[in-house]
Amino acid sequence: MSDEILKDALNLHAGTVLSYSPNGVMGDGKHAFCAGLRPQIALCEIAAKYGTDKLKHGYTLYYDKLFKNNRNIENFLELGIFRGASAKMWWEYFYQANIYCVDNCKPEKSSEELICPPSVLEELNLKQRIKAINCEQDDRVELTKIFKDIKFDYIVDDASHLQKETQISLAILFKNLISGGTYIIEDTITMYDMQLGNIRKRNGWGIRLGQPELPCPIAYYEANGKLRNESLFKDSTWYVLNKFIEAKIFDSLYLTEEENEYLTNHIENIEIIAAPQKKSDKTHSALERGKGRLLKDVWYPPIHQPLPEYTGTPNSKLKAGSLIIINKKAKDKQH
Ligand SMILES: C[S@@+](CC[C@H](N)C(=O)[O-])C[C@H]1O[C@@H](n2cnc3c(N)ncnc32)[C@H](O)[C@@H]1O
Under 8 Å CB-to-CB from 217, ≥6 apart: which residues? Predict the structure, then answer.
């Protein structure tokens, strides 16, 4: 196809000078156009096309800011496949990367529903550059074996969101990040009920199903600026990461000494982006419905604070659905 026809198809000005890289990606100096005809569009549009809920949660807006100048990466990994929407989104966005994705294809612990059957992995694996793998996110032996020779530019954990599994995945896979790479954990919340083993009685977000709110740790934190009972949260990802931010020491109850030491030595910094999702989102607006109440002389106020629109608010810490951005040290800073 001639450059003139291509420019016409892409609505480019007739005077635009096109150039081609050795791997077939064509550009006009400002934008890259994949495979000759696919314009490089923003992540939110691609998310809408494939239907991942990362769009309504506001995550893609943030991700686009984070990744847009570095789409030309080699390897990307996401934990958690569901129906494959985000795997396809990453595949289109990182137009020449290998997209690895992992799911255990088991019924979800909170709902007992099988939401990612093996057929989804089979369909994804038909696409060149996608490698969909059936594995537990916390299987140290298997994951180390599978990714023995692979280094990822970015890793996103959108799998079980349970404390133990999330932290073990981080320990295993942080070693597979390139120096200067970024590891992201989605939907990190306090998981209050999961801490207490009440997972069946409430939904996965720590909110009681169809019952009045118990004094909620989020409300207490909002009102007092500290946790009511820190010991209940000691194993939570939120707690461990905040302790790292304060003391620069990674200390997870679920990790070996060697794993904690590796993370302590290799994490450059951690940023907590509170609740990027929009206020209208159903799941998260449940957080706003709490009733205030007096309990043992302590007033727990109603949770009426609107969840923020996306602004990136690193200092407001204890909100549902936070994104955690963990950057790895550049090589010369590692010890
Ligand atoms: C939130 S969904 C992933 C959504 C997907 N990333 C998207 O945006 O379209 C979570 C997925 O994690 C998977 N999962 C849950 N626990 C897991 C575990 N222990 N290991 C691997 N995958 C797990 C579930 O089967 C489910 O498909």
Answer: 190, 192, 227, 228, 232, 233, 318
